[in-house]
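Note to self: keep these together.
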Amino acid sequence: MKNLIFTICLLFSLSSMNAQAGTTIQYEDNLGELTLTYAGLVNGKHSYTETGSGDDVTISWTGTQWEVTCFGCALPLAISTEATAMNPPNLTVGNWVDTPGDGTTIIDISGTGTTNIVPLPVELVRFEGKMMPAYAELHWSTASESNNKGFEIEQSLDGFNYRMIGFVQGIGESDQRAEYVFVDDKIRPNHKYYYRLKQVDFGPGESFSNIIVLESRRAVDFEISPNPIQAGGSVVVSNVDNASEFWKVSVFDAKGALVVSPTQSNQIQTELNIQHLGPGVY
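Structure:
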């Protein structure tokens, strides 16, 4: 039998932080005036970007300071001199320093930009899948949970249209690591399956995990001949599908004891010497 185990492991978090909705920053330099809006995490930093004019200006919070950059800039155009300017940032121009040699002069920065963040209720630290010959096995872990009703397991055949195939109840409230597993036993050979988790709160909230893709392979048929066989002879195992991959064949008696050690082959047929076996079922 061929070992058909495929594992995909993705590490990410459902607890990505979100800035307050509707925040904007007004930015003006010697080249013009722009309105920047919150764009989420850009290169791991909470950022405000301008779209539409082609200027591609971004203001980002690095964790210690605010920076102004532009698309293709090797260095920031300017940096904040106030490392604690976080919630909300002090956007007065007096707290910013132009980066030497960039050719830009800051005239004004103002607005309601903030990195005040709201964590989602579940911190997902592991989501992986393993495709077995007859089923798919999904595993995930949470580092902490708050108000977590549970997880809807969603499956898609095209990566766009998802349907719920199961539900696993959450712990609700926990600051300890929790492990979850779900088995999808309605798998057909030679299909690609997309899976994601939909985390559901006890209230109206919900969030989605990233997507993992598992692919089932077609079943491989084998024939054994002659069958039955006279004791003291040999038996031929044939790979009917003519697969070029390596496969192994072993012989066990009716009690499950190994009586012929595994023989590996990548040929269409392999012959087993079973002269030492007595009459019986194997």
